[in-house]
Amino acid sequence: MATEVKVPTLGESITEATLGAWLKQPGEAVAQDEPIASLETDKVAIEVNAPNAGTMGRQLVAVGDTVAVGAVIAEIEAAGAPAPAPAAAEAPPPSTPVNPSGAGENIEAKEPLREDEEVEGEGPHLTLSPAVRRIVLEHHLDPSRIRGTGKDGRLTKDDVLAAVEQQKTGSPAEAGAQAPEAKALAAPQQAQAQTKAWAPASAGERKEERVRMTRLRQTIARRLKEAQNNAAILTTFNDVDMSAVMDARARYKDLFEKKHGIRLGFMGFFVKAVALAVRDVPAVNARIDGEEIVYHDYLDVSVAVSAPNGLVVPVIRDAQGLGFAEIEKKIADFGKRAKDGTLGMDEMQGGTFTISNGGVFGSLLSTPIINPPQSAVLGMHRIEERPVVRDGQIVARPMMYLALSYDHRLIDGREAVTFLVRMKEALEDPTRLLIDL
Q: Which residues are catalytic?
């Protein structure tokens, strides 16, 4: 008798999701609690686990379908049961994409991987995790050509990222060892791919590719537009001399890592500086609710983190009471799990203030958009040496621009400027963070 696989509870106020990928195909053996499908919600990807061991049975929904909480999406047959017949009709596979980089023969060698497709290499089936599958699809890789270093030869995220880096640098080699015959054929195939990618198109051969927006990207787009429509967003700027923070990190980084097991980064200084500044300017940590202003006596900092499908903002709870080590450990954990797609829904709800660090991508200046219902967001940017005047002398200093975007309905310009000045003072003299000045 078949066991039904249902969509699990997805989190508070989340009633539906999109089927992102099937991780098991009909006829494959399934262990109890083994992931068999990946669901995309408005904020995170969630794996659906098998309720019991057996054989993967019928798949009742297709990749891209919207499913409600509690809906039956598949069946698990008892071990030894015959495999179900394949679906009568399937959507045709997408056309082979053009590889603009021209790197790697694996792109031209086969049709691109579909999200609902299992891959057979020279060994057993390749079962891809949601995080690995997203990277494979995004970069049009052939996973059967990449050597897996995980358990039973499975591909890990690091294996696929290594292949992506080799593709970017134009190297025909794959992650792991490559067969001699593949090495011999790599150069001409790479040249052929490059010719196809950049050769002038014949008349009438202007091609386009349509890719369905993920549920996460749709949510990001909707919320950003709502923020612009509903709030009076204004941005003010200041710059900060990062010499003192950089000196402190250089002086204590080894002792800090030895004691706490985590590197001392910049974000700990900024979170502590925000906690200090909001005490003087509480409106920055408040929100509008109808005709009322809600002030918080706690600071829950949403930290913008890059994930495969877009930006996510996990929350550091009660940041005002945390030490540097606790902050750095939480941020490192958030960053790792965002890339793996394992952040929980509850970890990205309820922030009161957001910090976005575009500097890690090289941004010099930006005007970030607030994350409703919050009223302000701090934008960090890259550090670069610029000429400044100190004691009447022009000297080079590592400077960073800070940007505070805020809801002008609640926060006045004077308060926004005061907030940034408090942050500047704390970062240029980190001792203030320790003695609460």
A: 408, 412
Phi/psi region, residue 179 (left: phi>0; alpha: psi -120 to 50; beta: rest), is beta
| Structural tokens at position 57 | 């049975």
Distance separating alpha carbons of residues 378 and 270, to the nearest angstrom: 10
70: left (phi over 0), alpha (psi -120 to 50) or beta: left
Residues 221, 213 contacting (CB under 8 angstroms) = yes
Question: What sign does the CA torsion over 20, 74, 132, 332 have?
Answer: positive
Query: Cα-flanking dihedrals φ and ψ of residue 99, to 5°?
Result: -95, 100
**Per-residue pLDDT tens over the stretch 20-43:** 889 888 888 888 888 888 888 766
How far the first Cα of the chain sits from its last, in Å, is 68
Q: Token digits for 183?
A: 């090495």
Query: By CB neighbour count within 10 A (0-12 exposed, 13-18 middle, 19+ buried), where does 223 fall?
Result: middle
Instruction: State residue 167's pLDDT score.
Output: 76
Residue pLDDT, tens place only, 42-68: 667 778 888 888 889 889 988 888 888
pLDDT digits (tens, 9 = 90+) for 381-428: 999 999 999 999 999 999 999 999 999 999 999 999 999 999 999 999
Q: How far is CA 108 from CA 149, 170, 334, 373, in A?
A: 24, 14, 36, 47
Domains in the chain: ranges and CATH: 3-77 (2.40.50.100), 106-194 (4.10.320.10), 232-435 (3.30.559.10)
Contact 101, 170 (CB under 8 A): yes
